Amino acid sequence: QQQVKQSPQSLIVQKGGISIINCAYENTAFDYFPWYQQFPGKGPALLIAIRPDVSEKKEGRFTISFNKSAKQFSLHIMDSQPGDSATYFCAASMRTYKYIFGTGTRLKVLA
Amino acid sequence: SAVISQKPSRDICQRGTSLTIQCQVDSQVTMMFWYRQQPGQSLTLIATANQGSEATYESGFVIDKFPISRPNLTFSTLTVSNMSPEDSSIYLCSVPQPNTGELFFGEGSRLTVL
């Protein structure tokens, strides 16, 4: 029940396309859902986050869609660029800083 | 956001030895966390480093294997003891942003055990 399931494991997108990564959770006590971006050799960097009281949050080209009833949330990267090529992790937490991370999605954006 | 510095950034160690990883934060923080990221895998919380008291370990991690120190509000160390090749991982220090609660990570310490 503590798991966060992430898909796909890897994703290849053409430059300018939309990248979509999905996550699902079981524990309804989770109340914070961040996405992290990690480049090779670097630590994860917070990209965008959402709380369950909203269904969507947008920051630039990055959008989180949140479906509370389905217990799912997704990251959409619009106009994907080669510089977006990285590993993306979703996560969930419940009123603590103990995050449960998804398994990661390796995104490659082709030039 | 807090600036988190980790040392060493990478190291190659022999089986059976121990290595201590340092984490320095540029501001005082109540909580510091240590995560492990095995090759190609996700992040797993090892423990919460508490200032002035013993660290709190997650299931599957024990103090004898991963002793942690937290001498003040800006510094912590994680020791990986009696290393085996299975300990080859990236070890990450993280701290929450005081105002927002967002969790920030250091660059990580990449450990290879031969």
Structure summary:
With 111 residues, chain A is mainly β. Chain A is 0% helix and 53% strand. Chain A has strands spanning 4-7, 10-14, 19-25, 33-38, 45-50, 56-59, 62-67, 72-77, 86-92, 100-101, 105-110.
Tell me the Rg of chain A in angstroms. Answer: 13 Å
Helix content range of the residues of chain A, please? under 10%
Kindly provide the radius of gyration of chain B, computed on alpha-carbon positions and rounded to a whole number of angstroms: 13 Å
Global geometry of chain A: globular
- Tally of separate helices of chain B: 0
Following the backbone from N to C, one meets helices and strands of chain B in this order, namely: EEEEEEEEEEE
SS element count, helices of chain A = 0
Helix content of chain B: under 10%
How many strands in all of chain B?
11
Instruction: Return the structural class of chain A.
Output: mainly beta
Could you list the spans of chain A in which at least 5 consecutive residues all have pLDDT below 50? none
Largest interface: A-B, 18 and 20 residues
pLDDT averaged residue by residue of chain A: 94
How is the biggest beta sheet of chain A arranged? 6 strands, mixed
The total strand number of chain A stands at 11
- Terminal CA distance of chain A reads 39 Å
Low-confidence region ranges of chain B? none
Report on this structure:
The complex is a heterodimer of chains A (111) and B (114). In chain A, strand 6 and strand 7 (62-67) form a beta hairpin. Chain A starts with a strand and ends with a strand. Chain A has 111 residues and is mostly beta strands. In chain A, strands 2, 4, 5, 9, 10 and 11 form a six-stranded mixed sheet that branches. Chain A has strands spanning 4-7, 10-14, 19-25, 33-38, 45-50, 56-59, 62-67, 72-77, 86-92, 100-101, 105-110. In chain B, 0% of the residues lie in helices and 52% in strands. Chain B has no helices and eleven strands. In chain B, a hairpin with a 5-residue loop joins strand 4 (31-37) and strand 5 (43-50). Chain B starts with a strand and ends with a strand. Chains A and B meet through strand 5 of A and strand 5 and strand 10 of B.
